[in-house]
Amino acid sequence: MQMFKDQDNHTTHEHSEGGVCRIPLTTDEAVHPPAEPPKMNDITWRIFRIMAEFVEGFQFLSEFKNEVTIFGSARSKPGNRWYKEARKFGNILAENGFTVITGGGPGVMEGANRGAMEKGGESIGLNIQLPMEQRINEYVKRGRGFHYFFTRKVMLAASAQAYVYFPGGFGTLDELFEMVTLIQTGKMQPIPIVLVGRDFWKPMIKWVETTLLEKEKTVSAKDIKILQVVDTAEEAFDLIKDSTERSFF
Fold it and tell me: Full-prediction pTM beyond 0.90?
């Protein structure tokens, strides 16, 4: 049996009878590839590990109410405008009885968790376990670590009645368009999707309107209305304060 990696960084095992089995690498395996290809019982136990992460994750989330999930750059420093705005937003949410959920990391996530903790609110982090460290900020009161990125993504997508996005990078955009797609396709009930930072988000909205909607006609006008753009924590709260709790699916 031969083992090699494909372009998507999957470990591929080619059996003598010609069958091919692709197994996603975990984060630590990508850094330190296993010397021997996994046997079938290893694959089975990996599936059970994935199932356990889902079960434990949903049980964890079921303990909270009035959840708002916040995304944004992990690179924003405490003096950054969006770190401070996220912290203020966390303050406001906690004062009004909402649970703050983030990815548990630094930057905007830390700002939001910090704001919630300062006002005695629920400050939750759903973080990812990395080979060398567990990136969780000190303001998370209760957290859950995930071994697999995709199970964490499902938990973040299932976790709230409103989603608020501060300026960020590819990870923030990935989470944003996943939620928009779920609402667009009717796989999730419509809930507030709020983008904070007009100067940051407006060029993207303009591109969606001119290229996707008008030129290529790959989206409809009602799809764009899923997104609401504001500039401050107070404006964001006004859009989500009357949101209602939703089921996971």
Answer: no
